[in-house]
Write a structure and sequence with these properties.
Elements (H helix, E strand, L loop, with lengths): L1 H10 L1 H10 L2 H21 L1 H10 L12 H9 L6 H47 L2 H4 L4 H8 L1 H33 L1 H48 L1 H6 L3 H52 L3 H30 L1 H16 L15 E11 L2 E12 L3 E5 L6 H8 L7 E6 L2 E2 L5 H5 L2 E5 L9 H6 L6 H13 L3 H5 L18 H14 L4 E5 L7 H12 L6 E5 L11 E6 L2 E6 L1 H7 L1 H9 L3
Length: about 600
């Protein structure tokens, strides 16, 4: 069984990918295709007895139909007479049933497609949410965005083309089966002719797949460039570099369109030669059969009908397969991207933290980024509702240490305990739900103030009360009262309608609304003017004693009132003490204070 699974994975990689999401539902689709072909074949078979009845009168003779006569005998055993009325009625029944089966097949494929794409999107979202932060920060953002948006649509096209190909392949097999039963010699000739067409299509498939891979690669590059273009637009505009950076985008656009042109050109060839090749093969086989082999004209006509159906299905199969090749690069990218997310999946702890109640202990922790050591032998204890600030020069490891405490990065050596529980054993989501995080670049969504603060919570009396309390704590109350729409005021893209200080207050209010125990402020006031910084600092100072405050600060004025200051340098903790004590104990810290004129 394992050998069979390995064989399927190796030679039917795409089928395995679809099967992973749809399981046995795939085979129902194939069964419906067999039904369509079989019912169509039975309907076509009725043309011979119809010709017999019309030309000779009386009842059709199954003996003149070769192996196809088995179907006539079977119908006669059911008491159905092969008279003109009986044959015509059977034709109507078979083709009506074929129409119903065709309808069911089409509807079922639509249902499968919707189910598949829904599962793909949900799976990607789930896997992205579970990826390690360390893996995420080294990921290609353009590829992530392209795969989760544009590539999903192309994978949907791949799904449709693949299953249309498989359905046409099933029809080819069914029609060829009927053809061989009607006239095996004739069938072999057409089969040989049809096989010759694969040499042309194989060349087209190879070239199309190569162009599809290039298109996927360039789309990912373009998405990344667009993200940077939008994110850095102010700088590019202010420095007159919009045109220069625009040249990079134009180059990628030309590469994308060149890949599309190649795909379209190859697809046009495949479409143009389809019917001429089919008619040529049929004409050649009819000439050979009539000139050298002879035979019953009725059986030859029926065989021709089957072969026309089979060759039509074959050409359609080749056309659909070429369409599949057009988007196969996206399917490969989707499979590789899912493997990438899977290998970067965060290992979930099993212990859920209901509430942070005692302390965080950091014991002999080292952290490496690749081969570079960022933190060295960190020992630290943080008690509940204590305010602690991390200071030091750029690159001293302040933010990295806070990221370890927040569970964003895994320690390379040593251990971190939260309420005497190993952090790595904790369910990260339960722990991180107790944490609020405010960074230098506040997160503002393009929505109302209420939705930004409450994260789209329903406007229940309880939530409205919590909203009012959190905006009061974040010193937003006065600002809200000045707005005509109050809490329903839209903030615009990335908070374009707010000042820097107002953005920070909204971010702080959001974290306080969440019912947290730990509030992390990572350079939260470094981008503000002195007056706004002082106002925000007053709001932060008012929170001391209510939350465990962890502050990363470059401006030392903002952490003057912290319970303890952690002074860091080159990834090590140099000293831990109060602000005033460090000024007297540490000469380097004293110089930092003097430089900032505190």
């Amino acid at each position: 069984m394992q050998k069979l699974k390995n064989f399927v994975k190796k030679y039917f990689k795409d089928f395995s990918f679809f099967y992973r999401y749809l399981r046995s539902k795939i085979f129902i689709a194939f069964l419906l295709s067999v039904s369509v072909g079989f019912l169509d074949g039975l309907g076509l078979t009725m043309f011979i007895p119809l010709l017999q009845v019309v030309s000779e009168g009386g009842i059709a003779d199954s003996e003149e139909m070769g192996k196809l006569g088995i179907f006539i005998k079977g119908l006669e055993s059911l008491g159905i007479s092969m008279t003109l009325m009986g044959v015509l009625l059977l034709m109507i029944i078979f083709f009506s049933l074929k129409g119903a089966a065709t309808y069911l097949r089409s509807i079922y494929l639509i249902i499968l497609q919707q189910s598949f794409i829904r599962k793909i999107r949900l799976n990607l979202l789930s896997m992205l949410n579970q990826i390690e932060f360390k893996r995420f920060i080294t990921s290609d953002v353009g590829r992530i965005q392209n795969t989760m948006t544009g590539e999903v649509d192309r994978v949907q096209r791949a799904f449709t083309a693949y299953f249309n190909t498989m359905q046409q392949a099933v029809l080819v097999i069914v029609y060829m089966g009927f053809a061989f039963m009607a006239n095996a010699q004739f069938a072999l000739l057409v089969t040989a002719g049809g096989a010759l067409t694969n040499f042309l299509y194989k060349y087209i498939y190879t070239r199309t797949k190569s162009a599809s891979r290039s298109l996927t690669r360039y789309n990912s590059v373009f998405q990344g460039q667009i993200i940077q273009h939008v994110g850095h637009f102010k700088y590019l505009k202010a420095t007159g570099m919009v045109g220069t950076y625009g040249k990079k985008l134009k180059k990628t656009i030309y590469q994308i369109e060149e890949s599309r042109r190649r795909i379209g050109f190859l697809n046009s060839i495949a479409t143009a030669v389809r019917e001429p090749m089919m008619i040529g093969i049929i004409a050649a086989v009819i000439f050979i059969q009539a000139r050298f082999f002879g035979g019953n004209i009725g059986v030859i006509i029926l065989s021709l009908a089957f072969f026309y159906r089979a060759l039509t299905a074959l050409m359609s199969m080749q056309q659909n397969w070429n369409t599949f090749m057009e988007v196969s690069g996206s399917l490969e990218n989707m499979q590789d991207f899912q493997k990438y997310l899977e290998t970067g999946k965060e290992k979930p702890g099993k212990v859920k933290l209901q509430k942070f109640s005692k302390q965080i202990d950091i014991q002999e922790v080292d952290f490496y980024y690749g081969q570079e050591q960022i933190l060295k032998n960190i020992n630290l204890q943080i008690k509940k509702n204590q305010s602690m600030a991390f200071v030091g020069e750029s690159g001293s490891g302040k933010t990295t240490l806070v990221n370890l405490i927040a569970g964003l990065l895994p320690e390379s050596k040593g251990q971190i305990l939260v309420d005497d529980l190993l952090l790595q054993d904790l369910n990260k989501e339960s722990y991180q739900s107790r944490i609020g995080y405010v960074s230098q670049d506040p997160v503002i969504f393009n929505d109302t103030i209420y939705n930004n603060v409450t994260f789209w919570a329903e406007k229940t009396p309880e939530n409205l009360e919590r909203f009012e309390r959190s905006v009061q704590q974040a010193a937003l109350k006065e600002f809200l009262s000045e707005l005509p729409k109050g809490k329903n005021t839209p903030l615009g893209n990335n908070g374009i309608n707010l000042s820097g200080g107002q953005k920070q207050r909204v971010s702080i209010a959001r974290e306080l609304f969440k019912d947290i125990d730990i509030l992390i402020l990572d350079e939260a006031t470094s981008a503000l003017d002195s007056e706004t910084e002082k106002s925000i600092q007053e709001s932060i100072d008012a929170l001391q004693g209510e939350y465990t405050l962890l502050m990363v600060a470059h401006r030392l004025s903002t952490i003057r009132n912290a319970d303890q200051i952690v002074f860091m340098d080159k990834g090590e903790i140099i000293d831990i003490d109060s602000f005033e004590s460090l000024v007297h104990k540490q000469e380097r810290f004293k110089k930092m204070v003097e430089l900032q004129e505190l």
